[in-house]
Design a protein that fits this description.
This protein has a two-stranded antiparallel ribbon with strand order 1-2. A hairpin with a 3-residue loop joins strand 1 and strand 2. The chain has two domains: about 110 residues, no CATH class; about 140 residues, no CATH class. The chain contains eleven helices and two strands; from the N terminus they run αααααααββαααα. The model has no long low-confidence stretch (mean pLDDT about 90). The radius of gyration is 19 Å and the shape is globular. This is Phosphatidate cytidylyltransferase.
Amino acid sequence: MWDWRQWNSHKQRLVTGLSMAIPVLILLAFGPYWSWCLLLGLAAGVGLWEYQRMVLPSELPQHWRFGYILLGLVFPSAAAMGGATGLHSALVFCLFAGFLTLLFFSPQDSQGIAKLSRLSLGWLYIPYLLSYVLLIGQADQGRPWIFFTLIVIVASDAGAFYTGKRLGQHKLYERVSPKKTLEGSAGGLLASLLFGTLFGILFIGTASIGEFLFLSGFLAIVGQLGDLVESLMKRLYGKKDSSNLLPGHGGLLDRLDSLFFAFPATWFFLQWLDQGLP
C-alpha cells in the first residue's frame, strides 16, 4: 500500500492537485449548469467551515456553526436563480439575518458585533466571491471564460513557484509571506500573459489581443494579491494552513485564494465587453 505521508511535499502537492483538478475540469467542461451549482455549494461550505475554524475557533457552538455555513449557501443559490441581482440580494438577506440573530438571541453579548463582523466577512470572502463563477457561466461564452480565468491563475501560480525556486533572491512581501519573491512574481505574470492570451485567441476570440493581454496581466496581479490576502489572514490568526484537508496543499482556502478576486474581475471585464450577461 502507498502511504502518501511518506512522499515529499512536492509529490503530495502534485498528486493531490491532479486528483482534484481532473474531475473539476471535466465537470466545468461538460457538466450541466446545475452541477456547477452543486460544486460551488460544496466549495463554499468547505471554505466557510475552514474560515470559521480559523477566525472563531472556540467561540461558537456547533449548531451556530452549522447555521452559519448553511446560510452561506444562499449566495450560490441566489446567483444561479437570480443572476447578479439575486447575488446582491443574498448579501442583504444574510447581513439582515445576522443582525436579527444578535437582536433576538444575543442582545447582551458585548462581542456580538465583532463576531458578526468576522462572520459576515467570511460570507463576503468565500460564497459571495465564488458565486461569480455562476454569473460568468450565464454569459454567451461562459465556459471558455471560466477556463481562461483558471488557466491564467494556474499559469501565474506555477510560473511564480518555479521561477521563484530557481531564480528568487529578492523578497516580495516578507512580513506577510516570507517565501514569495519578486522574481517569482514576475515569472508568474509572464506565464499568465503567455498562456492566457494564447488560450483567449485560440478558444474565445471575441476580444482583441491587447484585451486578452490586459486581462491576463490584471488577473495575474489580482490573483497574487489574493494569495497575499489569505497569507495575511493566516498570519494574523497564527495558522500555517487553513486546514489539513488536502495533503501537500493545506486547506481548500489555500488552493482557492488566488481565484476569489479573479472571477469577479473576469465578470466585470465581460460586462465591459457586453458578453451577453443577464
